[in-house]
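Here's a chain:
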Amino acid sequence: MSVFVHPQGLCESETIGDGTRIWAFAHVLPGARIGRDCNICDHVFIENDVVVGDRVTIKCGVQLWDGVRLEDDVFVGPNVTFTNDPFPRSKIYPERFAQTVVARGASIGANATILPGVRIGANAMVGAGAVVTRDVPANAVIVGNPATIVNYANAVHDTPATFNTTQQVGVRECSVPGVTVHTFPLVGDMRGKLTVGEFTDQVPFVPKRFFMVFDVPGRNVRGQHAHKVCHQFLICTHGSCSVMVDDGTRREEIRLDSPNLAVYMPPMIWGVQYKYSPDAVLLVFASDPYDANDYVRDYDEFLALLAKDPPARP
């Protein structure tokens, strides 16, 4: 294996992995480090303090400035703009440029703008033209200016065809093992409506704590963590929101849009709540008192814990 540099390309770095191809009018400065089997397309500029992993594709018209880190298997679309200084001035340089990280397997669509210092999580997808102003969670699909989460990659979605909240009272298994979706009876007459559930007959644990989430700005995302020990039971008592559950391999989005619907999440399930309606009130029952050490807030740490000690699922 060897490195291919087009006759009209300029590669000043000697730290280039085997199988990497650098095409016409691309310019790689001496300090840059590029991994194996990468494809650096026409008119790409790569500055000195840049690290690119293996099997990365960088399409035409991209500039990677000091501080950019692209992990393995990243895709960067045409004319994506990276930035590294939040307050740029001509001939005035910061002591240290902000570090921007695009984690393994993430994709960035054409003409997106990435502000300095953000982290784009593993397997995330940034839509074309998006302006990324904040960190992006692993697996999130984001679009817009400023970019917001609209979906999660490779997620299964509930639809009325597979789950009817008014007819199928009971419990169904989610596509993520261990997670269950509960529909409680909904009784109504001229006096109003009522729904009811019982611990531990219908809810699989006796709660020791509850909390409520409300007045969430519609673009904000809650959760983004797993619990090592704690079980949770989520009900949207008013309005609606979506719950994303993820076991590290499979993920499913469950829409809670009726107070007789609930989601049970066992320990070591990554959970995200988003797509809140302005009037949403999310009630969460927890099996244990609050313990900061029970939270797993980093997705890579979550995957490592699963690999080390996979939980038993029914």
